[in-house]
Amino acid sequence: MEAFTTVSVDLGDRSYPVEIGDGVRHRLALHIPSGCRRAAIVTQANIDVEVDAGCEQVVFTIGDGESHKVLETVETLCRDFATWGLTRNDVVVGVGGGIVTDVAGFAASVYHRGIPVIHVATSLLGQIDAAIGGKTGVNLPEGKNLVGSYWQPLAVLCDTETLSTLPARHLQAGLGELAKYHFLGGGRLDELSLADRVTSSVTIKATAVGADEREGGSRALLNYGHTLAHALEIAGDHALLHGEAVAIGLIYAAEVAQLMGRIDEDRVAEHRRVVGAYDLPLRPPADISFADVAPLFARDKKAVDSTTFILDGPTGPEVVTDVPMDILASAYERLCR
């Protein structure tokens, strides 16, 4: 395999490497814990990526799409693990995008009250966000990722070679998640090669996770653009891919910030430039109104007792509480125009 880059997620004795490069999936066996007898490979039928854990392994497939990112899927996985005989000394390996790593990580965190997990991220969204940081979870009908846990992996392998096989829409959607890193310290990421964009994004996320593992403070900024994004996904029954929804959410957050006097029109225009340069959607689907998404804002996992958004400002994005509903409505109207 070609040379690869390693970024460390620094969490003391639970620190782990994120390896980035073409072919790093072939390094999986090097990260399997000593004494491990079996590896449960969790993936999806449409992901044509083979891995070798260097020990006995069985592939367990989950369904494709957000409708399978539910508690029933986790229960099925855990029952299948038990039937096979997976023990707490064995390992789960998630091979796929964000849905796979979220579900596999959550299953690993609750099976036998927690067994090791390693992620082989095969999508752009998974490599720059979902597989890193230990956040796992599944959806409820009431909202995204409302049930989950923090369960750090032993390692994350971001195999950039797999990005060439992604369906065009899924690769494009991953750029929506990448777009947020432009405003979280990444600068003009669109001037870098794709591999360097991945490395830069991973570095930003690893730093945030190391400083605030359980999202009690600065790590919440990684949810920039996600409040509207999650609401659009739920209101539209997941017709939008996550990264597409985040792209729209970034522009919406900029419109809200401008109406609150936090940023000027030039900064809003920069948000539109970044999202537009990635050929991502700039406005919500026409059939989703503000009345559809507004009730969902309160169910966002950042919210405690008020409507909470990540909003840009003079020193960059920060958590803002008690955002007035009339401003949110006006910003949505501007977004739709």
Structure report:
This protein has 337 residues and is α/β, with parallel strands linked by helices. It folds into 2 domains: 5-165, 3-Layer(aba) Sandwich (Rossmann fold), CATH 3.40.50.1970; 171-205 and 214-336, Dehydroquinate synthase-like - alpha domain (Dehydroquinate synthase-like, alpha domain). It is 40% helix and 18% strand. The chain has helices at 28-31, 71-84, 98-110, 124-130, 168-186, 194-211, 226-235, 242-259, 265-277, 290-297, 325-336; strands at residues 5-9, 16-21, 38-44, 56-62, 91-96, 117-121, 135-140, 143-150, 156-159, 309-311, 318-320. The strands form 3 sheets. Strands 1-2-9-6-5-3-4 form a 7-stranded mixed β-sheet. Helix 3 packs across helix 4 and helix 7 crosses helix 10 (290-297). The radius of gyration is 19 Å and the shape is globular. The relative contact order is 0.11. The model has no long low-confidence stretch (mean pLDDT 95).
Question: Mind summarizing the main beta sheet?
Answer: 7 strands, mixed
User: Spatial order of the strands in the main sheet?
Assistant: 1-2-9-6-5-3-4
Shape: globular
Cα gyration radius (Å) = 19 Å
Strand content: 15-25%
Number of helices: 11
Number of strands: 11
Structural class: alpha/beta
What's the end-to-end separation, in Å?
48 Å
What's the mean pLDDT score? 95
CATH topology of the largest domain: Rossmann fold
Low-confidence stretches: none
Second rung of CATH, namely the architecture of the largest domain: 3-Layer(aba) Sandwich
Total number of domains = 2
CATH first level of the largest domain: Alpha Beta
Helix fraction bin:
40-55%
Order of helices and strands: EEHEEHEHEHEEEHHHHHHEEH
